[in-house]
Task: inverse folding
């Protein structure tokens, strides 16, 4: 049997650090069958001297809000989750960029849909992580799958089962030769990437869909809006049409995994001149400095691990 070296030594599960290969759940676990989990994605950036977690507390707060929306209770307090994340990273002795995935899931072993009084487990996984999307720019397509509406599923929450919507959209994009998918809502407005918030720039104004338009309230999205405002860029929240996407001067995606990634083509149409534009480039360069603790004004957003 081919044995692949695990990407990390330890996984934190229900209060214990376990060897990577020992962190297991039962096949009857409710979340495996029905997607009843809430999770976060958190970036850690190695500076050469320390590992810095970006906006850790904001991610933990959102995870607890997601659990509240789903109707489950995370079995720890916020500070205990925070400490467990740091403990996991220290145990693994990472000295490189990482991605951290805390996940709370209904671990009851039942085939029924009822989660009125469920068992809930918490796991923390951390793995080395580089670039999620091509940093020089992605080719995107507008998928035929529509973003689920918040009257159907609570898309403000990072609930595991909701991400089947994203998986299908990205599969479609990849099958058609594109790097990434853009999703429209039921009314034909472009609202998100498969796992990112979307921004467009037209005539030196940055636009992004509003939170009420069935999007995830992204932490990187919030970071972009604040950074852009601080350096004098104008950001407006409004519904974005397909035509506005096709005629945008710049488009970029923003997310924990994607960071700030330019989109250079949509449905075979070049964005601008087909290269990352000046607004995207300036924001991406500033973001890269902020997450590594190189801008004093934003040091409150980073938490050292060691």
Result:
């Amino acid at each position: 049997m081919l044995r692949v070296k695990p990407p990390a030594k330890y996984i934190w599960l229900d209060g214990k650090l376990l060897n990577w290969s020992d962190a297991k759940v039962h096949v009857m676990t409710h979340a495996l069958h029905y997607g009843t989990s809430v999770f976060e994605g958190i970036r850690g950036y190695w500076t050469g001297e320390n590992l810095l977690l970006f906006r850790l507390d904001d991610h933990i707060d959102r995870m607890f809000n997601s659990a509240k929306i789903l109707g489950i209770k995370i079995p720890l307090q916020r500070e205990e989750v925070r400490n467990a994340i740091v403990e996991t990273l220290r145990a693994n002795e990472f000295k490189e960029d990482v991605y951290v995935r805390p996940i709370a899931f209904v671990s009851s072993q039942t085939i029924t849909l009822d989660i009125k009084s469920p068992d809930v487990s918490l796991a923390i996984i951390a793995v080395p992580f580089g670039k999620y999307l091509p940093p020089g720019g992605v080719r995107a397509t507008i998928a035929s799958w529509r973003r689920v509406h918040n009257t159907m599923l609570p898309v403000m929450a990072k609930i595991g089962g909701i991400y089947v919507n994203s998986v299908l959209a990205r599969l479609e994009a990849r099958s058609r030769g594109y790097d990434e998918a853009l999703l429209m809502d039921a009314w034909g407005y472009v609202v998100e990437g498969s796992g990112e918030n979307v921004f467009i720039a037209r005539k030196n104004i940055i636009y992004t869909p509003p939170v009420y338009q069935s999007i995830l309230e992204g932490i990187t999205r919030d970071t972009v809006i604040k950074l852009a405002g601080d350096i004098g860029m104008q950001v407006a929240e409004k519904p974005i049409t397909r035509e506005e996407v096709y005629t945008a001067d710049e488009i970029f995606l923003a997310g924990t995994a994607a960071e700030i990634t330019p989109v250079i083509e949509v449905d075979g149409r070049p964005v601008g001149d087909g290269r990352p534009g000046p607004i995207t480039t300036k924001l991406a360069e500033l973001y890269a400095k902020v997450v590594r603790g190189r801008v004093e004004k934003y040091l409150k957003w980073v938490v050292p691990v060691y």
In short: The mean pLDDT is 96. Residues 138-291 form a domain with the D-amino Acid Aminotransferase; Chain A, domain 2 fold (CATH 3.20.10.10). The longest helix spans residues 56-70. DSSP finds seven helices and 18 strands in the chain.
